[in-house]
Design a protein that fits this description.
heterotrimer; A mainly alpha (318); B alpha/beta (519); C alpha/beta (641); A: 318 residues; mainly alpha; ABC transporter involved in vitamin B12 uptake, BtuC; 12 helices; 75% helix; globular; B: 519 residues; alpha/beta; Rossmann fold; 3 domains; six-stranded mixed sheet; 22 strands
């Protein structure tokens, strides 16, 4: 299947890395370590689901890291008022969705480029949070808040199930729901989508809102693993999420991306850091390596598809 | 759609005195149109006459300022694309609006499923329906194909499949044949006649009067935003239609004058370029000569032009006035004295957002600069000179080219190349989508250029144009030149026969096919 | 944009008397040069519809390599500058090759190189090495003046701007860039060498970024891997504010300069008004949205004369009112700081959000209340040496009565502190020292050696039989942490040879990253017995990781605050943390600053009486607060910071 070349390439890269780890290290493939790895990358995965949609519509959201921090604090403060767990979760998602809605509204209805909008909200939310919290952490959280009151295993299992379900639902919905196809139509040819009566502004607005809500969910799920909530979390997260989605084959120009690709991208970027530690490579080179992987992934794809895309271009021109 | 029976020759749509203005400028003053069931109704007029404004009001893309629109007897007070679609109106635009990243089946489905309820997509049904629709049209397109890979003609077919699939009662077609080859046009006409037979009403917009007279039942003529005439196609001639459109009589459609041809300006020997499907191409064009390139779309005419201009460079023996040149990118071509007026004016011919003056100087920036710095006075002079010479209708050369009408944009695109003083000019569909008035002005200009000693290659899908303008015609078939015809041997029949890959009837015997390379 | 800039200037001139001076004007410009160079380089790139996120990282990698060339390889400065520009060429050329050659989307390409270049800088220096001690004639490039008022780098900047202006607005190349921005395909059909042009501007962007790096190094007197972090986004904000469209085709260099000046003036004005630094980010974001929205609506109105524009005008007006109200609130709230005849003591932490500095602030406020002085407590929002310089400059302009600084980088801040001394403003340092001639007193809580020794000894106490240990640090480039690591290693080598360091992992002062890093360490090095975590926010992360793993055999010690570690000390996952009493330290900053400002510390004094802290010794020019405090189960509940 030609349209899955990128997914296959990233899959192969993942497999190669895992094989290398299997051959040269011990302890990587323990259930414990895999569970830890999963939990460590769960927030990025959940946000990547939203980011995939944003990128499909040819937009970008670089404010997710700041929204992540804000939502974590919101969840904690709500929980401290004695509100039940799901209220804390909902309020974090609601705040996240509100931030996303602001991004979406400015992008869709005012037609301000999304990179400008989300750059502004990224800076404003981050410093706004610093200002209001003055860097203070939220502590003394109610006992029921920690892992929803579940044991460590039960929590891991629940979150795993939730993430898999959400991811699968997303993949299915993007392919089979009319709304999912509307997202692709909007990203592929906005003017044509409008002609067909698709409310493309609403689509763009909603994908940002959904991304915000997912960020809220990710923040809450992450927050409950610890008994305090720092006010400086999520710095640089947006880059990791975007890199993962892009490495997974999403076209930044819109119209094309798969959830499978995003999952594989998150995996690759999530494994590479710990893999370096396991392989005994100095952490000092991790960032350089991540950058290298992004560049290789996108270049390899183009070089691989060069011939076929050229032929297609000629066909259209003819 | 419920298929209630509509009496033959019953009125399905009546637009009365529609008006629309943008920023105080009237785009439509009194647009009227009455459409009967099961007729092909042509809508003609120069660019800017209000054709597209009128159709946009009918499809609900824009709202009229005044006038009345009745569809199936009901007065439409509020219209939008959804409403018009639910009334059974489908529109097919000149530039098909496809989703390049999605499959053919989905492209069709998206158009048909709008407004229907249901959250989940039925992929199987989409697939089957697309297959059935395409098959019913005799098209061999795999519904799974990514729309990105479709040719223009295939895209057009998919567009029509959408209209058929929607069981549209009224189909608006805007220049559907602009990018089609003659065979594809024939197929399209068969299809349109079939639709008409099924009781569908078709509004057909085109600049090609021969086509219209062959196809249409009735013709509505628009001029300056007003409906000036409604005629039965059987009762009018091309000349009469042209007069109605321009409001004056146009002397001669093709102002061809014989120019004495000089030495060989451009010679191409055995050009092969498998990546774009060209092989074994050899030809020459002389000073003062107009060499026509005829052939089906995709037969290699535009591909050859793009290769000669360095857009898709190939290794070939190319000689300009006897000197070997290597053309690896457009700059080499320009340096060698070759200019190329591209097929797609809006995408490639001009940069719509940039001022006219900057568009004109764009290919010859060195000519208006000193040491890499642009001399603005010189640029203005250059632009003003061409504005006057080519009669570009604008008060100011510093307004964006996009503000001009299509014909004037084309003149700007041409001026850009004339500014480079080319020895060889390749014109790719120079009058496509251009109104009648500008069209004859461009024809006149081409002849003038030849008279000045330029060697001209004229690519056109309009046979009358290529025959009316050329000294010789090279007929393309399947990526190579099937043969050459000299002026006295020009006939539509001969050209088409060669274009379809057969030897030219009696032409070869008459030895007028000079230098035909192996087909 | 010009209007907005004027309004802004008038506002600050009215609100902060020292705003409208020539000195201040040139200071604003000096601090704008590095960012300005990036904004200038980005303008043509945005005009072609592209973007370059890698410029900030290019500054980092160039600065580090410049440091290597001059300090390690002892090259002549001029040679090093020349080679550095070539590094810029190389950095730009990689972007150019991928964008123009392979036609990859600029956003993703430069996102990759953003990470790559910064990573190379970190890799080369291990994040830790920072190069200082550049020759004075080189430093003059960034710190000197012409005619005592015009910063040296300013003419250079003007020259670059002029060159870019000619290139963009007058030259054949510039014209083709606009055409490419509107319609790259159409430009190609007109014979414009699109790829060559694109390649050129990305390469130039690399060169200009490396030039910015050299000026930056000269300005700070310091080359470090984290220089220029976040500059790309600020530069983009400036360009966009200046009216350049990220969709390509539209924009001017003049606009970018206005946008840049707008942001610089905003920051400067807010510092002069003693508004908190966080407000700058909030305002930047809000104003960016507001100005771009207004612009968007204006062009839309021009296109569509009578539709829907009116309905949105109130929205923009409301937004503008909100922003002005916010600023006015800030002004009123913080203006009280500047009123009356009370002394104003300006205290700067290294970073405002850090819990460690937060706890010190409580003590500072206590002292300010007690002594009836005004306290300005402000600092960078994240570790940033150049921000510290800028803030001190602004305090000098504002005219405070004493400056007390927790120094992020010794080499870079000393020049400006000397300037403060020269203007007769008492200067004290705390937490980390500047060069000794650049301040009056250093409030010494503990030396890196003291801390390193305490931690290494603690580790040995917990592991009497020796064993493996790992270090979780802050950001790899954090100066303090790197000094501590050095001291720990030295002490271990000297006194505890049976302790073996297996790995050092960064946490970026992020609790969650520390958590993940600690988990990985325990898996990858199952023999590890001790985690030494030396970043305050990171200790709870390490502790949580150990606790969740159920590994009773792994100990965590480190430097942190009792308030965020209390739980872990009680449940036994953290054995001990070390710290001095931060509240006391904060108290001392204001107390000592006030004493010095009132002239109550005579020359040659051997002790001061610091309020509730009692008599504190002075050794040389250092006020000694005491040894680091060992915090464990026994005393953690008695400490309230």
């Amino acid at each position: 299947m030609k349209q899955y070349t990128r997914e296959i390439a990233i899959g192969v890269a993942n497999a190669a890395l895992l094989l290398l780890l299997a051959a040269t290290t011990q302890g990587f493939f323990t259930a414990d370590n895999l569970a830890d790895l999963f939990l460590a990358n769960m927030p990025v995965m959940l946000i990547a689901l939203g980011m995939t949609l944003v990128i499909v519509t040819a937009q970008i959201d670089i404010s997710v890291g700041s929204v992540f921090a804000v939502c974590g604090i919101v969840a904690g403060i709500t929980a401290k008022t004695g509100a039940p767990m799901f209220v804390a979760l909902l309020s974090a998602c609601a705040v996240g969705a509100a931030c996303g809605a602001l991004n979406g509204a400015l992008t869709a209805y005012l037609r301000i480029p999304s990179i400008v909008v989300t750059l502004a909200t990224m800076v404003a939310l981050r410093d706004g949070l610093r200002w209001t919290t003055q860097g203070a952490w939220v502590g003394n959280l109610p006992a029921g808040f920690l892992r929803f009151g579940l044991s460590q295993q039960a929590y891991t299992f629940t979150v795993l199930l939730l993430t898999i379900t959400l991811t699968a639902a997303y993949a299915w919905g993007l392919r089979h729901l009319r709304a999912g196809r509307a997202v692709f139509a909007t990203g592929s040819n906005e003017a044509a989508a409008k002609q067909l009566g698709i409310n493309t502004n609403l689509v763009v607005f909603l994908v940002f809102t959904i991304t915000g809500a997912l960020t809220g969910l990710a923040a809450t799920l992450n927050t409950v693993r610890f008994n305090q909530i720092p006010s400086n979390s999520g710095i640089g997260m947006e880059l990791k999420v975007i890199a993962a989605v892009a490495v997974g084959g999403a076209a930044i120009t819109g119209g094309a991306a798969t959830i499978t690709g995003a999952v594989l991208g998150v995996m690759l970027l999530g494994i590479i850091g710990p893999a370096l530690t396991f392989l005994g490579v100095s952490a000092y080179w991790e960032k350089a390596l991540q950058g290298g992987i992004i560049l290789v992934a996108i270049s390899a794809n183009v070089l691989g598809n060069y011939r076929s895309s050229r032929r297609a271009a000629v066909a259209v021109a003819g | 759609m419920p298929t209630e029976a509509i009496p033959q020759s019953g009125e399905v749509l009546r637009a009365t005195q529609l008006t629309k203005s943008y920023a105080g400028v009237h785009a439509l003053r009194a647009g009227s149109l009455d459409l009967r069931a099961g007729e092909v109704h042509a809508l003609i007029g120069e660019n800017g006459a209000g054709k597209s404004t009128l159709t946009k009001i009918i499809t609900g893309a824009i709202a009229a300022d005044g006038g009345e629109l009745r569809i199936f007897g009901n007065t439409i007070t509020h219209n939008d694309p959804n409403i018009s679609r639910s009334l059974g109106i489908a529109a097919i635009y000149q530039q098909p609006s496809i989703f390049p990243d999605l499959s053919v089946a989905e492209n069709i489905a998206l158009a048909l499923e709008q407004g229907s309820s249901g959250l989940v997509v039925d992929w199987k049904a989409r697939q089957t329906r697309a297959k059935k629709l395409l098959a019913s049209m005799g098209a061999e397109i795999d519904p799974q194909r990514q729309a990105r890979s479709l040719s223009m003609a295939e895209q057009q077919i998919v567009e029509i499949a959408k209209a058929i699939g929607a069981q549209a009662k009224i189909v608006l077609m805007d220049e559907p044949t602009a990018l089609l080859s003659d065979r594809e046009v024939t197929n399209l006409f068969d299809l349109i006649r079939k639709l008409r037979g099924d009781g569908v009403s078709i509004v057909y917009i085109s600049h090609r009067l021969e086509e219209i007279l062959a196809l249409a039942d009735r013709i509505t003529v628009l001029r300056d935003g007003e409906t000036v005439a409604v005629c039965n196609a059987a009762d009018v001639t091309q000349q009469e239609l042209i007069q109605l459109m321009v409001g004056r009589s146009v002397a001669s459609v093709y102002p061809k004058r014989v120019v004495p041809v000089g030495e060989i300006a451009l010679m191409v020997k055995n050009l092969n370029h498998p990546a774009v499907g060209l092989h074994g191409i050899s030809f020459e064009v002389r000073r003062g000569e107009i060499l026509g390139f005829a052939g089906l779309v995709g037969s290699g005419r535009t591909e050859l032009a793009r290769t000669l201009f360095g857009l898709t460079p190939a290794d070939a023996d190319v000689f300009v006035y006897g000197k070997a040149v290597r053309i690896r990118d457009p700059r080499d071509a320009i340096a060698a004295g070759i200019g190329y007026l591209p097929e797609d004016r809006r995408q490639h011919g001009v940069v719509l957002e940039m001022p006219i003056a900057q568009n004109i100087s764009m290919a010859d920036l060195d000519g208006v600069s000193h040491a890499g710095l642009i001399d603005r006075d010189k640029e203005q002079q250059l632009a003003n000179r061409f504005r006057d010479e080519l009669r570009i209708k604008t008060p100011d050369v510093n307004v964006p080219a996009g503000n001009l009408s299509g014909g004037n944009q084309q003149k700007v695109a041409l001026a850009r190349w004339l500014a480079t003083n080319p020895q060889i000019m390749i014109l790719d569909e120079p009058t496509q989508g251009v109104d009648v008035g500008s069209k004859s002005e461009i024809h006149e200009l081409v002849v003038e250029l030849a008279e000045r000693g330029m060697a001209i290659i004229l690519i056109s899908s309009e046979l009358p144009e290529v025959m009316g303008m050329s000294d010789r015609i090279a007929v393309f078939h399947a990526g190579t030149i099937a043969g050459f015809l000299t002026r006295e041997k020009f006939s539509q029949e001969r050209i088409m026969t060669m274009a379809f890959g057969h030897a030219a009837p009696d032409a070869a015997a008459a030895a007028n096919c000079t230098q035909g390379s192996a087909a | 944009m010009l209007g907005a800039l004027l309004v802004e200037c008038v506002f600050f001139a009215a609100a902060a008397p020292s705003f409208g001076t020539w000195g201040n004007f040139f200071e604003v410009l000096r601090f704008s040069v590095e960012l300005g160079l990036l904004a200038v380089a980005l303008t043509p790139i945005l005009i072609t519809g592209g973007i370059d996120l890698s410029v900030g990282s290019t500054i980092g990698v160039t600065a580090v390599l410049f440091g290597v060339m001059t300090q390690t390889l002892h090259m002549h400065v001029l040679v090093a500058i020349l080679l550095s520009l070539f590094i810029g060429v190389a950095a730009g050329a990689l972007n150019a090759a991928l964008i123009a050659g392979l036609r990859l989307p600029p956003l993703i390409v430069t996102l990759g190189t953003y990470s790559l270049y910064r990573g190379i800088a970190e890799g080369i220096t291990h994040g830790a090495v920072s190069f200082t001690g550049f020759p004075a004639n080189f430093l003059a490039l960034g710190q000197g003046y012409f005619w005592h008022v015009v910063p040296v780098q300013l003419p250079l900047f003007v020259a670059v701007v002029a060159a870019y202006w000619v290139l963009l607005h007058r030259s054949v190349i510039g014209r083709s860039l606009f055409a490419i921005g509107f319609n790259a395909d159409g430009a190609r059909y007109a014979g414009i060498p699109v790829r060559k042009r694109l390649a050129l501007i990305y390469v130039l962007s690399g060169v200009v970024a490396s030039l910015a790096a050299i000026i930056y190094v000269a300005h700070l007197g310091l080359a470090k891997s984290d220089l220029g972090t976040g500059y790309e986004l600020q530069a983009i904000a400036a360009v966009v504010l200046g009216g350049t469209s990220v969709f390509g085709g539209r924009g001017t260099l003049f606009g970018s300069l206005l946008g840049l000046l707008f942001l610089s003036v905003l920051q400067n004005g807010m510092h002069l008004m003693a508004l908190p630094s966080e407000m700058y980010g909030v305002l930047t974001g809000a104003l960016l949205l507001l100005i771009v929205s207004a612009d968007r609506l204006r062009t839309r109105r021009a296109a569509k004369p009578n539709e829907e524009s009116k309905s949105r005008t109130p929205l923009i007006a409301a937004g503008a009112v909100a922003v002005i109200a916010l600023m006015a609130y800030g002004a009123l709230h913080f203006r009280s700081v500047g009123s009356g005849h009370r002394l104003t003591i300006a205290v700067m932490p290294k970073a405002k959000g850090d819990p460690y500095f937060m706890s010190a602030r409580a003590g500072a406020e206590e002292a300010a209340k007690e002594l009836h002085v005004n306290l300005i407590w402000d600092g960078p929002t994240s570790l940033d040496a150049s921000q510290q310089n800028e803030l001190v400059e602004n305090w000098i302009t504002r005219g405070v009565d004493a400056i007390v600084v927790a120094v992020e980088n010794k080499g870079s801040i000393s020049t400006v502190l000397r300037k403060a001394l020269a203007r007769g403003i008492p200067v004290l340092t705390w937490d980390a020292d500047a060069q000794s001639d650049a301040r009056d007193y250093f409030l010494n809580q503990a030396t890196p050696e003291g801390i390193g020794t305490a931690l290494a000894d603690e580790a040995a106490r917990q592991l009497p039989n020796g064993g493996q240990y790992a270090i979780v640090t802050g950001p790899l480039s954090a100066e303090n942490q790197n000094n501590w690591i050095r001291a720990i290693k030295a002490r271990v080598a000297a006194a505890h040879p049976n302790l073996k360091l297996v790995t050092i992992q960064p946490s970026d002062d992020d609790r969650d990253k520390a958590f993940n890093a600690t988990q990985t360490i325990m898996k990858a090095y199952p023999q590890v017995k001790m985690i030494i975590t030396i970043s305050a926010p990171a200790v709870p992360g390490s502790a949580e990781a150990v606790e969740q793993s159920g590994r009773k055999d792994v100990d965590v010690i480190g430097l942190s605050l009792p308030s965020i570690c209390r739980t872990y000390i009680h449940n036994g996952s953290v054995q001990a943390i070390y710290l001095w009493n931060t509240a006391d330290l904060g108290y001392l900053t204001v107390y000592a600053g006030t004493l010095k400002a009132e002239g109550k510390i005579p020359a040659g004094a051997t002790s001061i009486h610091a309020g509730r802290l009692g008599e504190l010794q002075i050794q040389g020019s250092e006020v000694i607060l005491g040894k680091p405090l060992r915090i464990s189960k026994d005393n953690v509940d008695k400490l309230n910071f």
